Amino acid sequence: MSIDASARIDPKAELNAGVSVGPWSIIGPNVSIGADTDIGSNVVIRSNTRIGSNNQIYQFSSIGEDPSDKKYVGEETWLEIGDNNIIREGVTLHRGTGGGVTRIGSDNLLMPYVHVAHDCQIGNNIVFANNVGITGHVEVADWVILGGYVGVNQFLKIGAHAMVGGMAHITNDIPAYMILSGNPAIIRGVNVIGLERRGFDKKTIAAIREAFKFVYKRKLTLQEAIEQIKAIDTDCDALRVLIDSLESSKKGIHR
């Protein structure tokens, strides 16, 4: 363990083997940090935060701060972060509100000045580019990529393997596997290149592209499109992921 002499560690914080804390960083009460996590200089980890192993948190990040929510009145809330995340300069991650928990998964890259607000549920293997802003209660599934300056409205869901171009404003749910870009933002197609890079076979990608046509090209209602997708291949796990992302939408999808 390596703790700079200028760092301030609350007695109620728990640091595991191999943790390093840089100059002028502050770690508050009820914080646990897993093995081999590296905390840079001038980082503030406010309170009630659980951080897993082998994370890198760069300078001037603010982790586990009180939520930016007028309804918050000091109740116990938490931030949970998994393993192997890279959290770059100036990232802000807030705890939940109303007794809730903000969760960040594992193997994620949060580039400089990303903000994740209270009660968000962020999956694994995601990339948020510079200045992405995620408002409260947003759910982001695994393998999502958000370009720089993307803004996401509250209570929305972004499906697995979706990709969003820079500076887009997300106002509705995004189904799994889709590419969205522009301002106003619209769905452009299936994230084929991303799926190929992640090992999806040609048959599965073809099924997803066929499903895309039902949702976006055939002038069907969403429920009609879902029924047509279910008939493509009942044994295709990837299609079930897409169907789940369509059926679970409460705010309506970008269409």
Number of helices: 4
| Number of strand elements | 28
Gross CATH architecture of the largest domain: 3 Solenoid
User: How much helix, percentage-wise, in residues?
Assistant: 10-25%
Domain module tally: 2
Going by helix content, strand content and strand pairing, the class is: alpha/beta
Oligomer category: single chain
CATH class of the largest domain: Mainly Beta
Strand content: 25-35%
Provide the low-confidence segments as ranges: none
The biggest beta sheet is recorded as: 11 strands, mixed
Short description:
This protein has 255 residues and is an alpha/beta fold. The protein has 4 helices and 28 strands.
What key attributes describe this structure?
255 residues; alpha/beta; UDP N-Acetylglucosamine Acyltransferase, domain 1; Udp N-acetylglucosamine O-acyltransferase, Domain 2; 2 domains; 11-stranded mixed β-sheet; 4 helices; elongated
